[in-house]
Amino acid sequence: MRRISPVGWFLLCGPILFFGLASRSDAAPITAFNANVNEWSSSTVGNSGAGIYPIGGSGEVNGGFVVTTGSDGAQIGLRAELRFMGSLPQTNNGITATYYAPTGTSGGNLSLWNFEADIDLRNTGHNISDYSAIFTVTDRSDLVTPVDLVASGVVPANAVLYQNSENPGFSFLSSVFPAFDPTAPGVYAFDLKLTPTTFTGDTLEASINVDVAAVPEPSPLALVASGAAALIIGRWRRRERALIN
């Protein structure tokens, strides 16, 4: 049997090893739409000493997120939701999801919708201080406001799980939404980007739009049609009662 020289083995196996390693190191983050994050529940117990800052609140449920997961298990998620009520309809173009929300107030200057964020680094051995964490908001007047989540103190430096739900009408967000009007239509954009700074790893990014529009009033034709239908039904019921009597 003919033996293969070491050079022959390298020529035979080298390409296989190279492409195998390349496929592992080049694994890109995966983005899913209308999806669950790892964990989003009102029952999750907070532990600031361990960097656990869960959503809390009452009745919070999972689902409807734009979720980006890295090869090391790091995960971020963004969504918009009807405040205290639940999910909003959404579409996506493979990069950004658009949520469709109604105009109106849930009290004072608060909108009917909230925007929500999830950062989960529990499987990575890192915390948020190992990243540049930038949350960028674009309001309906195209005012762009980037927020450094760690430097601003929004997210504690030891966080490995951070979750939050905010309303654009909250007073402490006035610098981000200086002219916010919950009754005005418009499109808002939110982008969350985590870039490793103390190690080599995946950059994670998730983006959503919130398209806020007034619920259209019934058209005159629709009003006439509904009125005619009511008139016909009324006449039919009166005739039916007359026949019975």
Order of helices and strands: HEEEEEEEEEEEEEEEH
- DSSP summary, beta strand count: 15
* Approximate helicity band: 10-25%
- Look up the CATH topology of the largest domain: Coagulation Factor XIII, Chain A, domain 1
How far apart, in Å, are the first and last alpha carbons? Answer: 108 Å
Structural class: alpha+beta
Rg, Å, rounded: 26 Å
Structure in words:
The protein is α+β, with helices and mostly antiparallel strands. It folds into 2 domains: 183 residues, Coagulation Factor XIII, Chain A, domain 1 (Distorted Sandwich); 27 residues. 18% of the residues lie in helices and 35% in strands. It contains 2 helices and 15 strands.
Helix and strand layout, with pairings?
Blueprint: H1 6-25, E1 30-35, E2 52-53, E3 65-69, E4 75-82, E5 86-87, E6 90-92, E7 97-102, E8 105-107, E9 110-111, E10 113-120, E11 131-138, E12 144-148, E13 161-166, E14 186-196, E15 204-213, H2 220-244
Parallel strand pairs: 2-13, 7-15
Antiparallel strand pairs: 1-3, 3-4, 4-5, 4-10, 6-7, 8-9, 10-13, 11-12, 11-14, 14-15
What's the short story on this structure?
The protein has helices spanning 6-25, 220-244, and strands at 30-35, 52-53, 65-69, 75-82, 86-87, 90-92, 97-102, 105-107, 110-111, 113-120, 131-138, 144-148, 161-166, 186-196, 204-213.
